[in-house]
Amino acid sequence: xxxxxxxxxxxxxxxxxxxxxxxxxxxxxxxxxxxxxxxxxxxxxxxxxxxxxxxxxxxxxxxxxxxxxxxxxxxxxxxxxxxxxxxxxxxxxxxxxxxxxxxxxxxxxxxxxxxxxxxxxxxxxxxxxxxxxxxxxxxxxxxxxx
Length: 146
Fold this sequence. Notes:
Helices cover 84% and strands 0% of the residues. The chain is built from six helices and no strands. The chain has helices spanning 2-11, 15-32, 36-67, 72-102, 111-128, 132-145. α4 (72-102) packs antiparallel against α5 (111-128).
């Protein structure tokens, strides 16, 4: 019975909304409390993480198709790296703008430190992303053992 419940829960369309509800309802509660600018700043900060992932991926796609002629495998790795960079760096930029213009109190370190760590995170994602040849050899080994 519990297994069937989790199978239904996995297919449910409301589970992602329950997970993101605190990130949306928190700033809305702040806005209803009379601090509209602060609530909008926090909402923009939380939304910028997803925007960073999308913008990083689109930027990598643009680089791979229009600037450099890279293989599909390298394009996938660059997309993962730039998505990680955007996830780590864009929210900090939005937080600094929200702190200076909207009166939020989002704690950040220096922009340079965040940029360096975002570059390191992107490099880690580039190196860790599996290549197609690694995936092919692992499946070949499994087929040889079977």
